[in-house]
Amino acid sequence: MHMNRLGLALMKTLYWKYFGLKNHRLCSAILAAGLVLVSTSHGLAQNTVTQNGGEAQGPLLAYIGTFSSPLKDTLPTQVDLPPGNGRGIHIFELDRKTGQASLRGEYALGTSPSCLATNAAQSILYSANETDRVEPMAGYGDGKQKHGTVSSYAIDRKTGSLKHLNSVDSGGAGPTYVSVHPSEKYVLVANYFGGSIAVLPILPDGQLGPATDVKVDSGPIGPTRAVHAATGSFAFSGHDRTHAHMISTDPSGRFVLHVDLGLDKVFVWKLDLATGKLSPAEQPFVALPPGDGPRHFHFHPNGKWFYSIQEEGSTVVVFDWESQSGRLTEKQTISTLPAGYAGSNFCSEILVSPDGRYVYAGNRLHDSIAIFSVSSDGTLRYEAEEWTRGNYPRSFTFDPTGEFLLCCNQRADHVAVFRVDKSMGRLQFTGNYLPVGNPSHVLFVDLR
Predict the structure, then answer these.
(1) Residue 10 sits in which domain range?
(2) What are the strands of the beta sheet with 277-287, ordered from one edge?
(3) Which residue of 57, 136, 222, 277 is 20 to 30 Å from 427, comparing CA positions?
(4) Do 334 and 316 contact (CB within 8 A), yes or no?
(5) pTM of the model
(6) Residue 361: inside a domain, yes or no?
């Protein structure tokens, strides 16, 4: 089924006209009303997912977050300027054997839901809406910059359709990353343009409450030239101010970590589950090489090793992780680029394979995924690279079995599907493309 174009246009008009109102509840109501208007034009209130009858098992769905509105009021140094070709959250069904995908529907949003997360039961979906359109909640903000939002949705476990529950202030501008604490009491959000992180309480029905804590990054900004930049590199993206880029917990949930690209630091926090307040850990942060710009990180499945990818330095830094104290100890720095590479590159995603044998690192401009094998001590060895089959790979995600890897080629307006050779770690392109405007993040939901 397709969205009614007139309804979609009307919804967008309502959204852009009213979303800047100070009354955030009214804004959410207007947005929800627009979504109902679009969906009910086909008699499916807030549901544009088609159903495949006669399946022996539930489908495997891929929810794809996109940039669905042009970034405005951006800093002069902003290199990532998607035109907003996405339509919100696109929903595909992935064939578990072949990796072929078919469009099931889309949930129209003009808020650039660029990062998605679910609870453990995969009954609630959360999106970080990378905009700066709402007035800050009382007690937060500097009065000069508007904030973005985080939204919650109920997932229909039979059809995969989404129902908007609510949206709340993200605690800063341009929320770019969202994750769910293992306790499922809180959602954690990193605000890129606001240089802040926030803790959002999860209410009994899955809705989000106002932030219990907001931390604003501060300190000396790193240099515009990365220590580990390739020869001839002009890679300069975030060393103009603070930029919180990712937030998540360690495997135990005892600690919360976040990176600030502009400060070249990984911060470590303790979270009080009773109050939702953050406090610095024994080791409050570790510094990365000046200008390298930490962007994302991932823990090894054994919980002992931590891998950080640097956007402007094009490196992976390997740390030992002490789970009792929350201490990081650096042990290796390795380039994501092949020997002899010269010119600019911006790293993006980093993932450890589910079996812990390989690490995958994304390169934008070089447009590749670097593949590393993991040694017995957690250090890495460069094994190979795979062309992403598109421009500017922003992120990639394994399917639940680890058989497939889906890569969001942001500027190519598609998601490319690769089969994973688990024995050698290599990626083999399946020939399958998912047409999606400015894709940013893939989240799998298994409806078995």
Answers:
(1) 1-46
(2) 244-249, 255-260, 265-272, 277-287
(3) 57
(4) yes
(5) 0.88
(6) no
Which of 82-91, 349-358, 421-430 is predicted with the least confidence, judged by mean pLDDT? 82-91
Instruction: Judge whether 368 lies within some domain.
Output: no
Cα of first residue to Cα of last residue in the chain, in angstroms, is 23
**In the chain, % of residues over pLDDT 90:** 79
Residue 12: DSSP 8-state: H
Burial class (CB in 10 A: 0-12, 13-18, 19+), 375: exposed
Residue 64's nearest CA partner among 345, 298, 409 is 409
pLDDT for residue 14 is more than 70: no
Report the pLDDT averaged over residues 274-294. 98
Mean pLDDT of 15-33: 38
Cα distances (angstroms) measured from residue 444 to each of 116, 151, 176, 266: 10, 18, 18, 27
For the chain, what is the domain count? 1
- CA distance linking residue 255 with residue 247, whole number of Å: 11
Backbone angles phi, psi at 55, to 5 degrees: -75, 140
Beta strands 294-299 and 124-134, pairing class: unpaired
Residue 10 belongs to a domain: yes
Matching residue, tokens 């400060």 = 263
- The two structure tokens encoding residue 158: 């039979």
Is pLDDT of 273 > 60?
A: yes
Sign, CA torsion 404/440/221/363: positive
| Residue 29 forms part of a structural domain | yes
Summarize pLDDT for 110-151 with one digit per residue, the tens: 999 999 999 999 999 999 999 888 888 776 766 678 899 999
